[in-house]
C-alpha cells in the first residue's frame, strides 16, 4: 500500500448532502402547507415548518453571510440535525403521510447528529459558514 495517499482518498459527499437537504426542504414545505389547512390550531405550526423548509432549501443554492451571524445552527451537522428532529417532532400527528414524513425527517436528523462526531466526514461548502474551508482568518492561539 505504498502509493495510496490516505488523506486525500475520502469521498466527496457534497452532492449526497445537497440531495438529502433538498428532500428535507421539500418534505418540510409540503407538510407545513398541509398544516396550514389542517385547522386553526396548527396554522402557526404550519407557517413555522414551511419557513424552516424554505430556509433549508434556500441555503442549498445561496449562502448569505448575514444568516451565519444570526442562525449559525444551519451551518453544522449538529445544528441541522437538531432542526430536522424539531421539524419531525412537529409533524408527529394526524395523517399517515405526515407520520411517514416525520419518520424520514427524524432518521435524517439522527444521522446528521451522528455525523457531527465523525471527524473524517467534512460538511459540504454550503454548510461551512462564511469562511468556507479557508483558515486564513484564524489566529494562532498558542
From TrEMBL:
InterPro entries the record matches: Golgi_TVP15
GO annotation, cellular component aspect: Golgi membrane
A single GO BP: vesicle-mediated transport
Lipid bilayer topology: Multi-pass membrane protein
Compartment list: Membrane
Alphabetical UniProt keywords: Membrane, Transmembrane, Transmembrane helix
Any single Pfam family the record assigns to this protein: COPI_assoc
Segments traversing the membrane: 15-33, 40-61, 67-87, 99-118
Coiled coil residues, start to end: none
Stated name of the protein: Golgi apparatus membrane protein TVP15
Amino acid at each position: 500500500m505504498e502509493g495510496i495517499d490516505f488523506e486525500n482518498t475520502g469521498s466527496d459527499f457534497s452532492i449526497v448532502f445537497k440531495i438529502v437537504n433538498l428532500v428535507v426542504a421539500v418534505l418540510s414545505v409540503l407538510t407545513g402547507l398541509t398544516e396550514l389547512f389542517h385547522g386553526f390550531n396548527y396554522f402557526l405550526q404550519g407557517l413555522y415548518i414551511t419557513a424552516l423548509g424554505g430556509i433549508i432549501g434556500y441555503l442549498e443554492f445561496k449562502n448569505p453571510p448575514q444568516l451565519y451571524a444570526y442562525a449559525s445552527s444551519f451551518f453544522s451537522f449538529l445544528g441541522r440535525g437538531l432542526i430536522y428532529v424539531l421539524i419531525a417532532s412537529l409533524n408527529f400527528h394526524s395523517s399517515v403521510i405526515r407520520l411517514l414524513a416525520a419518520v424520514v425527517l427524524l432518521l435524517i436528523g439522527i444521522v446528521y447528529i451522528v455525523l457531527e462526531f465523525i471527524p473524517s466526514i467534512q460538511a459540504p461548502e454550503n454548510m461551512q459558514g462564511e469562511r468556507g474551508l479557508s483558515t486564513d482568518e484564524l489566529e494562532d492561539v498558542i
